[in-house]
Design brief:
The chain is an alpha/beta fold. Helix content is about 40%, strand content about 15%. It has a single domain, classed as Alpha-Beta Complex (Amidase signature (AS) enzymes).
């Protein structure tokens, strides 16, 4: 069977009907990874032995009549999410040998639901980047064109799903790190509401922005995974104490007459014409086929989002990364005294982009500059939140591009941080506001590269956003297109 072409929900259906078993499915995917991943480099570590053992256990449980919702389904995990007994490196030399003694809450939930973990995927070091070129180990390539980036920072997870190494993976999104790679790789990526999914066990980058979410082939699959990832967690004080709705049932909800807002700020200078045309074609589908009303809106503080984000995120990163000092865990470079050991460990352990952000963040938080930078950025963040709150009084959804362009060439922006940062211009505001953001394919460029569209909704509007995404993708059925590897 061509397992790599089956969405997660189809794989689950075949497992439940007894038309295949988890061991056969897992073996087939591991074989594909072994054969194709040397070209793409989506995985930092493939956990073959553990995966086969978990698959055998899943088959045994199913024969004994056990009913678990994801029983035997193979998934991949971004390597900044803690996995007990399996290295969690954050694609950084400083954590190259770190093996967590515990599972992140999302891993505990996936295991309880019966999922099989195939391995850990590559990312930009500590999730800081938009191309997966900042990994300390190797860059990941886009399955649609090996000369291009898969996006970042969850580039390994998006590439793994696009290449058919798995039908679902976990990523994390701090400023677009699930949605932008999903767009570049032609798959689906969901950034849930901040607090909808526990962050316990996610290695922190920027704690007020980070959120774990699914990357899948279809929106239905994203709903399936979110069902078992979402929910309150006593181990995470920022997780929301809210009931989890039935996301799969919600996919069928009637959305006719709902209103879509198009932010005029998202369609100005910098947006490539091919992307604009594909978004316009998608809007016709929303209007003519799905019966939604479309109107222009304004998110007036959008021009300040990138500057705001690149003060708040590095400030939080400089605090969070202070713990990597060579004393407690991770890399330790010996020196003549404690201060020299700190300096050598952090100099050799962190890559250039991480160092850049630590320095920006430390400067923004330093005496005399805190009010001018961090405090001011926090005030602007409040204005960005208000923009969305006002917009959602008028419309039910906000729709726009995910990125200004399709996937760019490897090496093209690596020496130009500003150009790289601007590739997140349409995704950053969603994190600053803590709302829902969904990226899904809406077409292909003239060169055959995927282009994504972004659907945004108010806090905890995942059921509605997923429903709109699902109904849209069922008309275009772009998930039936695969890269030839």
């Amino acid at each position: 069977m061509t397992w790599h072409k089956f969405p997660l929900s189809t794989q689950l259906e075949l497992l439940e009907k007894g038309e295949t078993d988890s061991l056969s499915l897992t073996k087939a995917l591991l074989e594909r990874i072994k054969e194709k991943d040397p070209q793409i480099k989506a995985f930092i570590k493939v956990t073959e032995e553990e995966a086969l053992k978990a698959a055998e256990e899943a088959d045994r449980s199913r024969k004994e009549g056990e009913k678990r919702p994801l029983l035997g389904l193979p998934l991949a995990i971004k390597d900044n999410i803690c996995t007990r007994g399996i290295p969690t490196t954050c694609a950084s030399r400083i954590l190259a040998n770190f093996v967590p003694p515990f599972d992140a809450t999302v891993i505990t939930k996936l295991k309880a639901a019966g999922a099989v973990i195939l391995g850990k995927t590559n990312l930009d070091e500590f999730a800081m980047g938009s191309s997966t070129e900042n990994s300390a180990f190797f860059p990941t390539k886009n399955p649609w064109d090996f000369s291009r980036v898969p996006g970042g920072s969850s580039g390994g997870s998006a590439a793994a799903v696009a290449a058919g190494f798995c039908a679902g993976a976990l990523g994390s999104d701090t400023g677009g790190s699930i949605r932008q790679p999903a767009s570049f790789c032609g798959v689906v990526g969901l950034k849930p509401t901040y607090g909808r999914v526990s962050r316990y066990g996610l290695v922190a980058f920027a704690s007020s922005l980070d959120q774990i979410g699914p990357i899948t082939r279809t929106v239905k699959d994203a709903a399936l995974l979110l069902q078992y990832l979402a929910g309150p967690d006593p181990k995470d004080s920022t997780s929301a104490p809210k009931e989890v709705p039935d996301y799969l049932s919600a996919l069928k909800m009637d959305l006719r007459g709902k209103k879509i807002g198009l932010p005029k700020e998202y369609f100005g200078e910098g947006l490539e014409e091919e992307v604009r045309l594909k978004i316009e074609e998608a809007l016709k589908v929303f209007k003519e086929e799905l019966g939604l009303e479309i109107r222009e809106i304004s998110l007036p503080h959008t021009p300040y989002a990138v500057a705001t984000y690149y003060i708040i995120a590095p400030a939080e990163a400089s605090s969070n990364l202070a713990r990597y000092d060579g004393v407690k865990y991770g890399l330790r470079v010996e020196a003549q005294d404690l201060i020299a050991m700190y300096k050598k460990t952090r100099s050799q352990g962190f890559g250039p982009e991480v160092k850049r952000r630590i320095m920006i963040g430390t400067y923004a938080l330093s005496a005399g500059y805190y009010d001018a930078y961090y405090k001011k950025a926090s005030q602007v963040r409040t204005l960005i939140v208000r923009d969305f709150m006002e917009a959602f009084k008028e419309v039910d959804f906000i729709v726009g591009p995910v990125a200004p362009s399709p996937a760019f060439k490897i090496g093209e922006r690596v020496d130009d941080p500003l150009k790289m940062y601007l590739s997140d211009i349409y995704t950053i505001s969603v994190n600053l506001a803590g709302i829902v953001g969904l990226s899904l394919p809406c077409g292909f460029s003239g060169q055959g590269l995927p282009i994504g569209i972004q659907i945004m909704g108010p806090h905890f509007s995942e059921p509605e956003v997923l429903a709109l995404g699902h109904q849209f993708e069922e008309i275009l059925k772009l998930y039936e297109r695969y890269p030839e590897i």
